[in-house]
Every structure is written in C-alpha cells, then in structure tokens.
Amino acid sequence: EADIYQTPRYLVIGTGKKITLECSQTMGHDKMYWYQQDPGMELHLIHYSYGVNSTEKGDLSSESTVSRIRTEHFPLTLESARPSHTSQYLCASSASLSGRYEQYFGPGTRLTVT
Amino acid sequence: GNSVTQMEGPVTLSEEAFLTINCTYTATGYPSLFWYVQYPGEGLQLLLKATKADDKGSNKGFEATYRKETTSFHLEKGSVQVSDSAVYFCALSMRGSQGNLIFGKGTKLSVKP
How far apart are CA B105 and CA A32, in angstroms? Predict the structure, then answer.
C-alpha cells in the first residue's frame, strides 16, 4: 500500500488568494511529481523533482511553483489564484533505484477558484 | 516523440461482459508499459505492468500483453463487475527518462448491473 498524502482534498477559494497544496510521502522515494487533471480526465505533468533541491517544469506550462527542501515533502504554491486554475491536482512519487518506474499517486486535491 | 494512444470512451458494458480497452504506443526504444485505474474521487492506482516484449501483466482479473510487433498493450477482462467502473489510463516509461510517465488520455468505463 502506497503512502502518499495530499491536503486539502477539496479547496474553494477566491480569486487573488495565495494557496499551497501539500504533498507528503513516507516511502523514501527520491522522485516526486505534480499533475494537473482537466475535466476531460487527461493528465498533464506540471512539475517534477529528482530529489532534494531539484525541481523541473513539466510538459504543461503552469503559473504554480514547487519546492523540495525535504525528501518526503513536495508542496505546490499558487501566488495568486485565478478561475483558470480550477482543476484536480495529483501528486505522485517513485523510487529511481527500483528501476521499475512505477509511480504512486496521492488522492488528489480538487481546487475551485471563484 | 514518444506517445500513447488509447481508445476513446466512454465505454458502457453490462455486468459480466467482456472488456477490451485498446492501447497503442509510439516509442523510439523499448518502453515499460503500464495500466493505471482511477476510481471516482481518488488518485491513480497501478493496475498492471509489463517491462519487455511478450510479458503479460495481470491483476484483479485484468490482463494486458506487451506486443512489440503491433506496439500495443490492450487491457482485457473476461467478466466485468459494477465495481470496475472507473477511468483507465495506459502509460509508458522509457529507460533513461528518469521515470517520467507518458499517459494516454484515459478511457472511462461504466458497468451497468
């Protein structure tokens, strides 16, 4: 059973607010990822990290930022939320040493910006 | 570039029907292949995987065989249940890609009693 957590599960917030979506994993995985899932279900990689102090932008341009100060923690921040940021955000992690490339996903945060 | 194409949904079946969800891939090398499942309101779970040609992944009655000659990894189940209603994603990962997955667009399955 994968142990990866996301909080909050649901968030409704007004335009212009700063928000941070939390993601933590207890598996000691070195790699972590953030995906944005649109209403049509398609997944878009927006950020990833290969380890502490490593962050990279994904395939989909995003106004969000991420940090990786600790192995287990990979928060995503929106400095000024807009209605276009309304989406489902999924966090995932994987272990590079396993060589199996399996990613384990958290339950997601559903963000609504009004 | 590398990509995954899976059949568009939604797919609606009656309980105990046979399921096939087609998945084909384009890759410059030899990828590992995965099927993930997303139940309503949840994140994705790994359903099964195959890492080399002719490997068969299986789990919970689902199967998929890595076919290099047809670049396919079709998902099958002999008898679906209402509890199988979910969105299914096919994905690939290339060696040297540092584990990044390339996903298909997802196929929504609804099983009616």
Answer: 21
Dmax (CA) of chain A:
42
Nearest CB among B34, B42, B97 relative to A107 is that of B42
Neighbours of B91 (CB within 10 A): 25
Say if residues B111 and B80 touch (Cβ distance below 8 Å).
Answer: yes
pLDDT digits (tens, 9 = 90+) for B39-61: 998 999 999 999 999 999 999 99
Question: Does B44 touch chain A if contact means CB atoms closer than 8 Å?
Answer: yes
Distance from CA of A81 to the nearest CA of B (A): 23
pLDDT band at A97 (very low <50, low <70, confident <90, very high): low
DSSP3 helix / strand / coil % (chain B, rounded to 5): 5, 50, 45
pLDDT digit string, tens, across residues B15-24? 999 999 999 9
Inter-chain contacts counted by CB atoms under 8 A, chains A and B: 52
Band of pLDDT at residue A95, cut at 50, 70 and 90? confident
Do B21 and B74 form a contact (C-beta atoms < 8 A)? yes
State the distance between the two ends of chain A, measured CA to CA, in whole angstroms: 35
Contact partners, residue B69, CB within 8 Å, separation at least 6? none
Q: For residues A37-48, b (16+ Cβ closer than 10 Å) or e, as one string?
A: beeebebbbbbb
